[in-house]
Amino acid sequence: MDERAPIAERAQAPETLPEITAGDLRWRPATVDDAPQLTVLTNTMAEADGAPFRETEEETREELGAEWRDLEHDSLLGFEADGRLVASALVATFPGDTSTVRAFAFGGVHPDRRGEGIGREVLAWQLARARQILAASGKELPGRIGAYAEDDDPVSKHRLFLHAGLEPRRYYSDLKRPLTGDAPPIPEVELAPPLRLVPFSPEVDEATRLAHNDAFRDHWGSEPQTAEQWTNGRSEFAPEWSFVVVDDEPDVDALVAAPSTDAGTRAALEAGAPLVVAYALNSRYEADFPVRGYSFGYTGVLGTRRAYRGRKAALAALAASMRAFADAGMEAAVLDVDTENPSGAHGLYASLGYVKEHGSTMYSIEL
């Protein structure tokens, strides 16, 4: 397919979605009220597949309730005759996409009902719906249909993606850094003024979002986050463990005039808002503690504005985070990293004592 063709052409969207007949299940769209049953299904699948995580009902509710989510058209739940939920499908999109328009497939089948062809038909429905979404997006951009698989997932899941035409595109590492016992000391990082480390607070939240969008502009697969995306899904967020670095004396005139400064940052600077240049935002996933066998703080987003790289700002935020984890009695620090991260983050984490525990693969169809 010609990559210069309109997205409506490249997506090759079907007029109707394929029917799911395998397993003789009753199908309907999800609602936020399905969060309790869906959480049970998700965690049952995770346990069977040896996944290193579990979901809380609140996390599921947040995912289903995102204000841009169109559950009526982009989700399906499969029930047995007695009402037990045994299969789920969600096609997730992101309103902030500006360089690649994306649709990701999430879901699965209860371990008791695998081997009946349900998963294959569910994925076919998801891919067809993803093509419809991309075709209707009106965004004349490259398109991507994606799905994730943990390295420990059954081989059949990886084969299912390959058979459906998705290709392994990106690899991620789940890293752990011990904080107790004979763990190396957490580094002391001094910042040269006018850079200053401060605890995260609502007053710097929007400035942190702008910093994140700038920091990840050159990262493969990353797209700007809208304000709604940025604040969604924070049920496990630990602001008391999170830190940002601000520039107390930014050269506002130079930054406003620089072609590389995004419109959001430019407007914020002109309005006198603080300039966040690095950040480490962390969460406390207590439901995962017994699964992993240790308590930990999780660094969900970490980055530095591109103009401030090389000044140890993100390292200072990460070190402060690790110290906060340790002070709270956590046994380890955990984070995920793209193995081809352009900022060289993988090497930095290794130097700090992080080692790989798990991995995952993103499969995709590029349009």
TrEMBL record:
Pfam families: Acetyltransf_1. This is Acetyltransferase (GNAT) family protein. Keywords: Transferase. SUPFAM superfamilies: Acyl-CoA N-acyltransferases (Nat). It comes from the Bacteria. GO terms for molecular function: acyltransferase activity, transferring groups other than amino-acyl groups. It comes from Agrococcus carbonis. Residues 25-196, 195-367 form the N-acetyltransferase domain.
